[in-house]
TrEMBL record:
Organism expressing this protein natively: Citrus clementina (Clementine)
GO annotations of cellular component type: cytoplasm; nucleus
Pfam families the UniProt entry points to: NUDIX (PF00293)
UniProt name for this protein: Nudix hydrolase domain-containing protein
GO MF term set: metal ion binding; pyrophosphatase activity
SUPFAM superfamilies: Nudix
Methyltransferase among keywords: no
Magnesium is among the record's keywords: yes
Keywords on record: Hydrolase, Magnesium, Metal-binding
Superkingdom in the source lineage: Eukaryota
Cofactor field: Mg(2+)
Length: 129
């Protein structure tokens, strides 16, 4: 997704999570900015299609039955290693690997099996410019 001029990147991340995955929650950690090339966003201002994504970890508090983009998107829950395997782009894998390893190292994700473990299901949300 993208962010609008009248919202912060954090507000955009929460809005995009709702629109694309039908989830509401709290942003827990900024995972970083990642640059990538987009074939669909090539234009006169950026002929090479350079874009920047802001990645966040979201602690999901509510999973909606219906959401704006449910007809074009499928929600699925994956462990971090499974999500890394499904990434189409190297920068997405890097964001997950580095971001969640940092969270784990900082003890922001509990190491107990009963709580939010590194192998707990996650929803990955990126905001693209």
């Amino acid at each position: 997704g993208g962010w609008e001029n009248d919202e912060t990147v954090e507000e955009a991340a929460l809005r995009e999570a709702l629109e694309e995955a039908g989830v509401r929650g709290h942003l827990k950690e900024f995972l970083g900015y990642y640059e990538f090339k987009s074939k669909t966003l090539q234009d006169e201002f950026s002929p090479e299609g350079l874009c920047k994504a802001a990645m966040f970890a979201l602690l999901v508090k509510e999973e909606l039955e219906s959401w704006p983009e449910q007809s074009t998107r499928q929600r699925s829950w994956l462990t971090v290693p499974e999500a890394i395997e499904c990434c189409r782009h190297p920068w997405m894998r890097e964001a997950l690997e580095k971001g969640f390893l940092k969270l784990y190292a900082d003890h922001m994700i509990s190491t107990s099996k009963e709580a939010n473990h590194i192998d707990s299901p996650v929803h990955c949300q990126g905001i693209f410019d």
